[in-house]
Amino acid sequence: MGILAVRRWADLDATEQARLLARSTAAVFDPALQRSIEALFEDVRARGDAAVLDATERFDGVRFAPDHLRVQPGELAAAHATADPALLAGIREAIRNSRLFNEAQVRATATGWREEVRPGFHLGEQVMPIPSAGLYVPAGKGSFPSVLVQIGVPAVVAGVPEIAVLVPPMPGTGAVDPATLATAHELGLANVFRANGPAGIAALTFGTATFPAVRKIVGPGSPAVTAAQVLAQRFGTATNMLCGPSESLLLADATADPHRLALDLVNEAEHGTDSAALVVTDAPALAAALEAEVAAQVAALPEPRRAYATAVLGDLGGVLLFDTMAAAITFANEYAAEHMQVATADTEATLRDLRYAGEMLLGQDTPIGASSYSIGIPATLPTGGFAKLNGGVTARTYQTTTSIARLTPEALAGLAGPTTALADHEGFPAHANAFRGRGLG
User: What is the residue range of 420's domain?
Assistant: First the structure.
C-alpha cells in the first residue's frame, strides 16, 4: 500500500466522514486542551510577566530575564542588516503585492458611504481602523516571515495605531527568528515580543507590565495557539476564527495534470502532521496516476517534512472519490477549506457552483504555494470550516464600521406611528415618549 490514502466517500461510515470534515478543529476544542489553556490564562492574569516566563520555560525550553520579553530595536536592525539578500528580496516582493491588494480594498471602503435611501433618510457607515492588534507569528516548525507579511501588511495599510508582534523564541538560544525580525523592520513594526504562544496571547489579552492589552489577535498556529485565541474572546479580545493548522482541497476532474496536482498536494501536506491535504475528484484514473507522482515527490523531501507529508496523506489527506463532479462540489462546499484549488476543464463554470473557501485558486497555473507567498491575496485564512463565516486576514479584518443616520423632520414624523406602536407593545414608555414628547405619534 502506498502513502496516498484513496477513499470513496460513499463507502465511509458516518464517524469517518465526520472526522475528515472536522480535521484539526477536533484538537482545538479538545476538553483537556481547553482546561489547560484556561489555567494558563488565569495564571497570566494573576501573575503577569512571571507567568509568561514560566510558561516559556516549560513549553519552549527557554528561560530568560523579564527585560528580554520585548525584542530590542537593535535586534530588529541587526536581523535586517544581516538578512540574506535573496530572502529580503522575496519578503519585499510579498509585501509589495500584499500592499497592492489591501490598498485597493481600503480605497474601496475607507470613506465609508452615505446615501439618501428614501426621502429624508440619510444613512451610511463610517470606517475606522481598530485601536490595537496583536499579530502572532508561529515558529515551532520553522521560520515563517511570510506569515508576518500576510497579517502585518493589512494591519499597517488599515492604519491600526498600536500593533504588537508575538513570536515564540527559538529552542536553546531564546532568540527570535531573524527573518521574522527583518520582516518586522521592513514593515516598521517595532513592538515585537518573544514568549510561548498561548501564554503570550494571554498576556496580550490582559496586558502585563511588558505586554500591551490589544483588542484583536490574529495569526495561524497549533491547536493550543488557536484554542488560546478562542478563549481570548471570552475576555473581550476578538480573533479571526479559526486560523489553525493548514488545510487544502484540490478539486480536480479527469483533465487535471497529475504531476502538477501532486506538486500542490504535497505542498500542503508538508506543513505538519495536524494538517489536511485532499484531492477531491470524480476521476478514479486520476487517483491512480497520482499515487506514483506523490510517492516520488514525498520521497524527495528532507526530514521532517517527509514524515509530515507521509502522515497527512494517509490520514486527514489523500484522495476522496465521488461518483459525479456535482457530488464532489457539494462536498467541497461543506468542507469549506482554507485553501482551494480548482483544476477542472472549465474553472469559471466550476466556480459558479462553489460557495465557501478561504481562497479559490483557478487553474493549475495558480498554485497554493504562490498564494501563500507572493500573489498578494490573503493567505492567513479560516480553517475548520469557518470559511463559511468569515474570510482571510485583510485590511478589513482591522477595520470597524459605525452606522450613521440623519433624519429630516418629515422623515421623523413618518416614523412616529410605527415606532410608538412597537414601543407600547414591548413596554418601553420612554421610547414612545421620545416621539410623543416631540408632539408626534
Answer: 408-436
Q: Is 339 a catalytic residue?
A: yes
Are residue 93 and residue 165 in the same domain, yes or no? yes
Q: Mark whether 46 and 130 lie in a shared domain.
A: yes
Phi/psi of residue 296, each to 5°? -70, -40
Those residues whose C-beta lies under 8 Å from the C-beta of residue 165, and which sit 6 or more positions away, are 134, 135, 137, 148, 152, 180, 184, 189, 191, 192, 193
Backbone dihedral region for residue 110 (phi beyond 0: left; psi -120 to 50: alpha; all else: beta)? alpha
User: Are both 224 and 331 inside the same structural domain?
Assistant: no
Selected catalytic residue, list 334, 338, 359, 431: 338
Provide the β-strand partners of residue 128: 400
pTM: 0.90
Measured distance CA(43)–CA(60) in Å, rounded: 17
Asked if residue 402 belongs to a domain, the reply is: no
**CATH code of residue 35:** 3.40.50.1980
* 390 domain residue, yes or no: no
**Residue at a domain's end among 212, 239, 266:** 239
Please confirm, yes or no, whether 185 is among the known catalytic residues. Answer: no
Position 77 in a domain: yes
Quick one: DSSP state of residue 426? H
Q: Choose among 28, 67, 43: nearest CA to 193.
A: 67
pLDDT in tens, the chain (441 residues): 589 999 999 999 999 999 999 998 888 889 999 999 999 999 999 999 999 999 999 999 999 999 999 999 999 999 999 999 999 999 999 999 999 999 999 988 777 888 999 999 999 999 999 999 999 999 977 899 999 999 999 999 999 999 999 999 998 889 999 999 999 999 999 999 999 999 999 999 999 999 999 999 999 988 899 999 999 999 999 998 788 788 999 999 999 999 999 999 999 999 989 899 999 999 999 999 999 999 999 999 999 999 999 999 999 999 999 999 999 999 999 999 999 999 999 999 999 999 999 999 999 999 999 998 889 999 899 999 999 998 999 999 999 999 999 999 999 999 999 999 999 999 999 999 999 999 997
Selected catalytic residue, list 268, 293, 339, 359: 339
* Domain end (from 209, 239, 269): 239
What are the backbone dihedrals phi and psi of residue 217, each rounded to the nearest 5 degrees, phi first? Answer: -125, 130
Q: Exposure pattern of 402-441 as b/e (b: 16+ CB <10 Å)?
A: eeeeeeeeebbbbebeebbeebeeeeeeeebebbeeeebb
235 with 258, same domain: the answer is: no
Same domain, 321 and 208: no
Tell me, yes or no, whether 135 and 176 share the same domain. yes
**Total count of domains within the chain:** 3
